[in-house]
Write a structure and sequence with these properties.
CATH architecture: Alpha-Beta Barrel
Radius of gyration: 17 Å
Number of domains: 1
CATH class: Alpha Beta
Structural class: alpha/beta
Shape: globular
Distance between the termini: 8 Å
Oligomer: single chain
Strand order of the largest sheet: 1-2-3-4-5-6-7-8
Strand content: 5-15%
Helix content: 40-55%
Number of strands: 8
CATH topology: TIM Barrel
Amino acid sequence: MTPGVRPLIAGNWKMHGLRADGLALARAVAKGGGGAELLVCPPFTLLREVATALEGCAAVAVGAQDCHAAAKGAHTGDVSAPMLRDAGARFVILGHSERRADHGEGDAAVLAKTEAAMAVGLVPIVCVGESEAERLAGEAEAVVTRQLDGSLPEGFAASGGVVAYEPVWAIGTGRTPTEADITAMHAAIRARLVARFGEAGAKLRILYGGSVKPANAAPILALENVDGALVGGASLVPADFLAIAAAAKAT
């Protein structure tokens, strides 16, 4: 954990949840809270209702899982950053590996989306991470550094932007890197942020994501430069999500 930085525990619900499920999950999370900042990122269909259900709840913020780079236009099926803000979002996840892989999003696309989010006051959570083949080839740090350089715009630090390191091979697999590997990568990310943004880069939050669960949360969140977690599957179980948040408070 970075001294003086409040941890962020962000739940990425991905493509899960109908209306009743989402509202029940949001209300259950709202009963937790505490030292860590909590964030839930439902699918677009639930965004407004979840934001309304959590209105006035200082313990839990609401975010989205993606946005288009344009503010409006002929982009069937897409959702713009102004629309997200209007629906009640405060954060938006960008450049997740599932977007990069499933939709062919490269760093330039992530950069444009990040700029769009910042333009309307959304806090961007920009995801970076290497594949297993890249790690085995000794290229993990170079890949992540390249993604950082290509995906983060000027002004990112001033916006309070967040970086999430998610090794692609750990997402949803139950596998996690060693604590030494996480520490090394987060140190490399921190060094890059400081080189790019100066003192402001030293205080930007860097989250770890990739099969985070209650059983492994405490040792991961205690590592240097790990300022919270981007949680996938465990965020769909209120008790698990709140247990991870409690682990962040305890470090």
